[in-house]
Structures are given as C-alpha cells and as structure tokens.
Hints:
Strand content: 15-25%
Order of helices and strands: EEEEEHH
Helix content: 10-25%
Number of strands: 5
Largest sheet: 5 strands, antiparallel
Structural class: alpha+beta
Oligomer: single chain
Radius of gyration: 35 Å
Shape: elongated
Amino acid sequence: MWRFDGNMEAPSFSPSLLYVDRRCHLYVSLGRIVYCSDCAHSFAGKTVEMVDLDPGTGRPCMSEEEKAKEPEKPKEPEPKKPKQPKHHTDCGIVGDVGAVGDLGSNAADSEAGNKERAARKEAEKK
C-alpha cells in the first residue's frame, strides 16, 4: 500500500518506486527525489530537489530569478506579404485579378480583350 505524508510543499511517499523498463529505482522523501544506486542512468546515487511543473507544458516552472537569467528568444519574423501590383490613380477601378496572362474583369476594350470575351462566351454555350 502506498503512503503519502500529506505535505504538499515537501512530500514523502513510500515505498520506493521501481521502473523496471527504464531501470530506475527511487523514493521521495521530504520534497527530494532520492535515486537509488541500482539506477541505470546518470542520477544513480544522487538526490535532487523536486520542482513544480507547469500544468500546461509539463515542464519545470521557472523562478523569477531563473526567468531573469533566461536569454530572451528572438521574435519570429512576420511572414512577408506578397507585393500587390501598384496602379496609377488614373487607371480607375482595377477589378478582379485573374491568372497570369488573363485579362482583368474591367480590361479596356481592345482587340485582344474582345477576342478573349468572345472565346469565353462560346465556351460557356457548350
């Protein structure tokens, strides 16, 4: 049966925990994690203080002092917006932009523009 002393600031649990698949054997006493010497990792035989975990990330919380020492991460550059073609004010309303090579919805009456519109009308009839 597991026992917990009820101390949330410096807890103690018993008996020890044995993670067979990770080859880790430890116990928690007075807010410290005591790794037994039969562990197969670098903490074997060492004692470390328990730390609070951030519930959102599961990572250790940082003290204000640690946060002050932490180098500020560079801000991600904002994605570049595609350049919009510029039009002279005397062009009037530009209209919808089509694929490269297409005429816009308000293309001036020209021989090429008239042929394009005629071809579209014929395609729509079919």
